[in-house]
Amino acid sequence: MELLAPAKNIDVARAAIMAGADAVYIGAPKFGARQAAGNSIDDLRQLATYAHRFGVKVLVTVNTLMDDYERKEAAAMAWQLYEAGVDALIIQDLRLLREQLPPIRLHASTQCDNRTPEQVVALQRMGFRRAVLARELSIDEIRAIRQATLADNPEQPIELEVFVHGAVCVCYSGRCYMSERLMGRSANRGACAQMCRMAYDVLDSSGRELRDAKGQPLHQRYVLSLKDMNRSAYLQQLQDAGVSTLKIEGRLKDADYVTNVVAYYRQKLDALTGDTAAGGKQTHESEYMRSFEPNPAKTFHRGDSPYFIAGRTAELANWDSPKSTGEPVGIVTSARDRSIHVQLLPDVTLHNGDGLCYADRGFQVNSVTPLSGTAVAVSTFRAVNIPVGTMLYRNTDTAFLKQLHAERHIPVTITLEVEESGFVLSIGSYPAGSWIATRHYEHPHTAATQGEQARRTQAAQLAKLGDTDYVAAEVHVPEQAYFIPMSALNAWRREVAAAAVEAQDTAYIRQKAASVTVSEADLPDYNSTGEPLMTCRYCILYELGHCRKQPSRLKPESEPRYLRLSNGTTVELQFDCKNCRMNILDCSNSQTFKPSNPQTLKHITSNTI
């Protein structure tokens, strides 16, 4: 399976490649589903050239809905991207297919709401080479989609891509209109205001606040803020179900996050295939090393769940905070002013500068003083009032971040041979066959006085590729040892290594793409009028223990139920139990609740993304 990594810019893309990604996806200059993560054509051209040397593909997102006049611009941009060397475009708006597009692979974004066999088969018949499936699907549902696509086209079925890690939208992708209608910022246009990361009161039909299973009032709680996805325990099942690509979410995440999570899944995939090597992994295209043990809890982390992959479960959300919580580290035993005593969990060590948090609050460690056993005293930069018994979490581990480094090199075969007028030096792909760079050098055939020693020295000298992307997997020198000055040998190696870059760039072959067509009958209705603000598989009723399909653990309060923001803006919860879905409805015309001006909503900050 291909490991697909996110990148907000070329620097993060390089970090993903170093950590072991097989492909990266990155935003186009315009029309990507993250307005804050656009990239220039020139940057994407540089990235494509760099990535292809490592056998890594570059996929570019052009996955927003567009106005009529914008589709002409998007089609012109698609040609620029094709000429820049990118491997595929990820699109949402099927109306774009009516424009004249380049012969490039097209992938159907998860924003197309790809959750049924019928939808994915329709995309396959249009000519899409890949469908990015809805996050909410179970293994059985993914398997059913694969079986349907194989039955429809056993020779060349559409590839299936699934998300395996990262932030999760509470709404089916492409079916969220809450940000657009309440904030004037369309999620389908790349300007989501993240309504699911905001705090709400949960009310019954009388306007009274409900309580959770612990008896706590549901007052300004983050009831739509889902934990991050982690499906690392399900990779074998995904492979068996017919998945071809594993996708990590995070086109707004930094290089530390991407390096850590990509390395984590690279390690898992290598263990799955048995393709591991000491200190890293070697493939036909590249070899990489890392100086750390990957751990997703060490970078941005909201807690995690496998999110419906094995069916419906509770505790999919973190109602206390939409921010990064990291990993649990210990329990507070006392707190006074700027000093906190903490009973650490086993094998936990705190460091100066670490970031700690609890509920929706956080602080930085100034210094750590050992006490008895695993207890420590933590001094802070400001007074922190934390109740005794509170579990602390670390969302910034300074020691881990300092060692977070990955390298990737391209294994090559180096061969020095004798010819009539001198020598031939070549550097080529390992194993041989993909590309090769060769140079001829006139030089006298003078026998070396210490033959075996000369051969060893020459092989070692030719293998010194430290200032390049290459690493010597094999070095071959003549059986008959000849005297060649080290200065000449080094100059030859540098020249051929430079030529190897050009040989690699020339040898890369982009996958061919069939034409993609769409009829008017195949076009979805992009008019959201009358649609729910959100359509979700996640259900607050289920989280509360009120599922109507199960014996209720708690007495249900009167319905309907509502969510209310701090400014009074209120939406209604509708439970479609037959289809096991929760809809969020606009109740601006309700006589019970009168929403206030949406412009007074407090925008959520970028650190919750």
Give a quick summary of the entry.
This protein is an alpha/beta fold and 609 residues long. Helices cover 23% and strands 25% of the residues.
How do the helices and strands line up, and which of them pair or pack?
Layout: E1 2-7, H1 10-19, E2 23-27, H2 41-53, E3 57-62, H3 68-84, E4 88-91, E5 105-108, H4 117-126, E6 130-132, H5 139-152, E7 159-166, H6 178-183, E8 201-203, E9 228-230, H7 235-240, E10 245-248, H8 255-273, E11 280-282, E12 287-290, E13 304-305, E14 327-336, E15 339-344, E16 355-358, E17 361-370, E18 375-380, E19 391-396, H9 398-402, E20 406-419, E21 422-429, E22 436-442, H10 451-462, E23 470-476, H11 486-507, E24 534-536, H12 540-544, E25 561-564, E26 570-576, E27 581-586
Parallel strand pairs: 1-2, 1-10, 2-3, 3-4, 4-5, 5-6, 6-7, 7-10, 9-13, 20-23
Antiparallel strand pairs: 7-9, 8-25, 11-12, 12-20, 14-15, 14-19, 15-18, 16-17, 16-19, 17-18, 20-21, 21-22, 24-27, 25-26, 26-27
Share of β-strand residues: 25-35%
User: What are the segments in which pLDDT stays under 50 over at least 5 consecutive residues?
Assistant: 591-609
> What value does the Rg take, in angstroms?
28 Å
Strands of the largest sheet, in order across it? 1-2-3-4-5-6-7-10
Global structural class = alpha/beta
Count the beta strands.
27
Instruction: State the helical fraction.
Output: 10-25%
Q: What features would you highlight for this structure?
A:
single chain; 609 residues; alpha/beta; six-stranded mixed β-sheet; 12 helices; globular
